[in-house]
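Milestone M4 deliverable, item 7.
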Amino acid sequence: MRDLLFGDRDRDQIRSHGLTEEKVGKQIENFIKGFGYLPVEGAASVANGIIRPTEVQAEKYILEYDANSYGLTIVKFVPASGAATRMFKDLFSFVNTGKENQVAEKTVGGIENFAFYPALPGGIENSDERTVVEAVLRYGAHLPKGLIYFHSYPEGARTAFEEHLAEGAMYARSGNTVKVHFTISEEHRTGFEELVGKIKSRYEQKYGVTYDITFSVQDPATDTIAVTPSNEPFRNQDGTLLFRPAGHGALLENLNRIDADLIFIKNIDNVAPDRLKADTVRYKKLIGGVLLDLKKRADALATGLENGQAGISQVREFIENSLSCKLPDSFDTSGPESQKLLLLKLLDRPMRVCGMVKNEGEAGGGPFWVSNSDGTRSLQIAEPSQISPDKAHLLKEGTHFNPVDLVCAVKDRNGNKFDLTGFRDPATGFISEKSKDGKKLKAQELPGLWNGAMADWITLFVEVPVSTFSPVKEVTDLLRPEHQSNV
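Output delivered:
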C-alpha cells in the first residue's frame, strides 16, 4: 500500500469517522486497482435456480409460515435513509431551465390525484404550471421518501412509513407485537419520531397489535473517502477530506445488530395501498414458509451429519437440489472428512429467500449463477456493473430481476446469531463518478447489501408476481393505478 501524506487535521477527521489511516489507505488502493467482475456463469431461470411453486406447494408454504412463525421473533427491516430528491429531479430541471418535460407536465395535469394534494396551498390546481411545480417542491423535495404521502384514504393520506406499519401487521407479527426497524438519516430522525408519536396508537388500535418501532443511522465508520480522477484524496474547499456514505452495503452493520429469528427486508418506496396488499402479504408468507422449511431441514441434516445419522450423499443431494449450491468438481476425490467439513460449512450459514419478478424492462440487478473461490457454484444477485462486457449477453438472457424482497434467517442451528460481516465478499464493491463544487471525483460503495454483502449466504430465489413490486422512483409514479387507492 502506497504512503499517504495525511496531516494532523486529516488524522483527526479520519478518527472522528471511526476510521483508521490503514482503512482509508485500503479504500484508496481499491480506487487504484478497481473491483473485478463477478465470475458469472449464467442467468438463473425457472427450474434453473428460480423456484416457481405450484398452487398446492404455495398453500403448503403459506400454512408452514402461519403455523410456525407466531412464536418467532420477526423484524421488518426497511432501508429508509434515502432522500426524495431524485423523485423530484425533473421538476427541479423544469424550474431551473424553464424547459417543459413529461414529469412536470404529468405532475401539473394530475395534481389533484396525488395523496399529498391536500397539503398544498388551497386552489393550487388553478395556478400556472410553474407555481404548481414550485409548490410540490416546497412540499416534498426536502423530505425523505418515508415521510411523503403516498396513498389517499377516506380517513386521510398515508406516508410510505405508515404503509410499512400497516403491511407489517399483516405478516410480520411476533405474537401480537410488530417489530419494524427503519434505517434513516440523522437529519430526519425528528420528523420520523414526531410521525410515530402522532399515528402509532391509531394503527395499534386499527390492527390490534403493539408496534415496536426502532431506528438506526448509517455508521460513519462505514463511510468511504472520495478521490480525484487521479486517485488522490479529494478535498473540500476548506481543505478537509471528503467522506461519502458507502451505499446500502453499509447497512450490513445495521442489519447485523438486529436480533431476530426472521428478518424481512423491503425498500421504503415499494408499498401498495390496502386494496392491493393481498398479493404482498400472500407472497411474503410464501417466501417465509420456504425459508422456514429449508432452514429446518438444513439444521437437521447438519446435526445428523455431525452425529452420523445423515450420510454424505443424502446431505449432498439436499445442498445441490434444494439449496441450489453446486459442489466443486474436486468433491468426489476428496476424503470423507474433507467432504464432511465442506458440507457442514455450506449448511452452517445465514440463509435468505429472495422474491424474483419477471423482467418487464425494469433496470436493476438480477439472479445469476456465480462461481465461488472454494469451487462451489451458487446463486447471487448481480448488478449490471458487476458483469464483464464479454458476458453482457447474459443480462439479455435473464428472465427475472431483483425487486429487493427478502426474508432472512441469521441464526445458527443452536440459536446463536451469525456475525454477518463474515459472509460478505469485500471484492465486490462499486466505483462511480460524481462531482462536488464543480469538480469531478470518484466515489466508492461497499458491497451492496443484497449483492456482495450477502455473497456467502445460502441463497434461494422464488418467483413472485409483479403486483408485489410498485416502487416510486419519480414523483409521477404515484399517479400509476397501483398507487391510486380509489381505482
